[in-house]
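Technical annex B. To support the medicinal chemistry partners, we prepared a structural model of the target in complex with nicotinamide-adenine-dinucleotide, based solely on the information shown next.
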Amino acid sequence: MRVAVTGGLGRIGRAVVAELAGQGFETVQVDVAPMRGQSPGYRRADLRELWQAVDALDGVNAVVHLAATGVPDSHTLHPELAEGATYAANSTSTYNVFQAAAVHGVRRVVWASSETVLGPPFRVGGPAQLPLDESHPVRPETSYALSKATGEAIADHFAHRCAMTSVALRFSVVMDQAEYAALPAYWAEPERGRWNLWSYVDLADVAVSCRLALTADLVGATALTVAAPDTLSDRPTAELLDTYFRGVRVTRPLGDFEALQCSAKAEELLGRRPSHSWRDSAR
Ligand SMILES: NC(=O)c1ccc[n+]([C@@H]2O[C@H](COP(=O)([O-])OP(=O)(O)OC[C@H]3O[C@@H](n4cnc5c(N)ncnc54)[C@H](O)[C@@H]3O)[C@@H](O)[C@H]2O)c1
């Protein structure tokens, strides 16, 4: 199978390309960034332009769409301009990738949505229930999150319009071994993790979830939470709930350090849920 990986030069993109190559897939890295050196598997394209997306997906059988801009809205001098630019870039690129896939008769698109579609950073309101899973209402609070929610609507549209199968992977914050070393500073300020329920997902699990979603037995547009099985916190989950989310309905008993984002549906539909934990590397 020949798979186009958009954002293929990015952090997750490189991991996905390595994972797919290791499992015998042929990959095409599509990215607006220039690639150093020669690579027959690289195609430069700005996916905000439909014709470039159509050219980039020529001859592929499936797409892993990761290209996006993730400028946090509050981290710029002109947040209102950055908000508009983030929304426009991501929603347009996602539309163009789905449309280009339809033009070429590609039947499967796996793509990076985000945990933020369900409410993080919870500045406007709290979660309706915990743990967060696919039964929670979609409540984007930032233009980035809105662009991902729009992407999910685009995926539904293409499923309806041309029977395209797609999997939106709602990744939590992606981390790897090197970043786990910084956790003691994070533990010193437990409120820092409130915005996304102290959640994360290991880069290796992210890459595997993309591969599994390419061949999972699915039809239509599916959205899945993809988060690690535990929190990043050194405090028990019950203590975090009691301190920061008292009064929020908890739908089932939770383990000592169990995550507040639940990937059970990913396990059911992809055959595997994220299993890497920072606790394993700490041991
Ligand atoms: N990193 C995380 O913690 C995280 C969490 C949830 C979701 N996601 C999503 O996962 C995806 C990949 O994230 P990442 O961390 O690898 O980001 P990244 O910034 O490392 O990589 C993104 C890549 O997309 C490319 N790109 C951006 N705009 C483009 C365009 N218009 N046309 C073509 N290429 C373009 C960039 O050049 C870059 O190489 C994104 O969609 C992101 O929103 C990431």
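Notes passed to the chemistry partners:
The mean pLDDT is 95.
The pocket of nicotinamide-adenine-dinucleotide is lined by residues 7, 9-13, 31-33, 45-48, 66-70, 89, 93, 112, 114, 171, 173-174 (CB under 6 Å).
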